[in-house]
Specification:
By secondary structure, the protein is of the alpha+beta class. 45% of the residues lie in helices and 19% in strands. This is Flavin-dependent thymidylate synthase.
Length: 241
């Protein structure tokens, strides 16, 4: 039965599928201005000097040396997350799965137990709080009921011969989609500055929790590739150069 096919998830998936990204990429790009082409061995002769150069570039916002690298991520998240994600255009490339060309699978988002449910305060001056057990019960039951009904209608249209691009109109934004997203370190830092909330940030940000979940996973993967650059980003207030 259709109802048995529906899957409810409270987490997102982020995988680093390919990359050409290291701290050395930043050093190559920065030092060509004054020293010309250098070998990798020369770049690593003085680690502290290299660390200091990356920190200087970050601190004084010399951004272009951070663009000479590439990371491609596979992301699975609710459609409403991608609608926010696609607002980031400079330095990003996207390819998302198409509901016109494939049958969309019944995988839907529900808030996990850590997700705060209730917004209190005025726009620009609000906070989120946990919510009551009753509110959480209403949310989960309402979402699951709506998802099952919507996907049942979707399948009913497909089985009647209706085109996928027409039938998909009944599906909600809680449906999971997948995409490849490619960026460089500079564009990723700008994304992280807006889509994560951190006490280290010079400029406060108030991201929706679901896109922050994606951003946190991306940041952890990037930090493993470019640890010096990531440390400089954090030390300088999480401001993109």
């Amino acid at each position: 039965m259709i109802e048995d096919e529906v899957r409810l998830l409270d987490d997102v998936t982020v995988e680093l599928v390919k990359h050409s990204a290291s701290d050395a990429d930043v050093l190559f790009a920065a030092r060509v201005s004054t020293a010309g082409e250098q070998s990798l061995e020369e770049l690593h002769k003085d680690p502290e000097r290299s660390r200091g150069l990356i920190n200087f570039l970050m601190r004084d916002r010399h951004g272009s040396p951070f663009e000479h690298n590439s990371m491609t991520f596979f992301i699975s998240a609710p459609i409403f997350v991608f609608r926010e994600f696609h607002r980031h255009r400079t330095g990003w490339s996207y390819n998302e799965e198409s509901g016109r060309y494939r049958e969309l699978r019944p995988v839907f988002y529900v808030p996990g137990p850590e997700r705060k449910l209730v917004q209190e305060g005025k726009p620009g001056r609000y906070v989120f709080v946990e919510g009551t057990p009753g509110q959480r019960k209403v949310v989960l039951e309402a979402m699951e009921g709506a998802y099952r009904q919507a996907y049942s209608a979707y399948r009913e249209m497909l089985e009647a011969g209706v085109a996928r691009e027409v039938a998909r109109a009944v599906l909600p934004v809680g449906l999971f989609s997948t995409m490849y997203a490619t960026c460089n370190a500079r564009s990723l830092m700008h994304f992280l500055s807006l889509r994560t909330k951190s006490e280290d940030a010079k400029v406060p940000s108030f991201p929706q929790r679901e896109i922050e979940m994606v951003a946190e996973k991306m940041e952890a993967l990037w930090a493993g590739l470019m640890p010096i650059t990531h440390a400089a980003f954090v030390a300088n207030g999480r401001v993109s150069p």
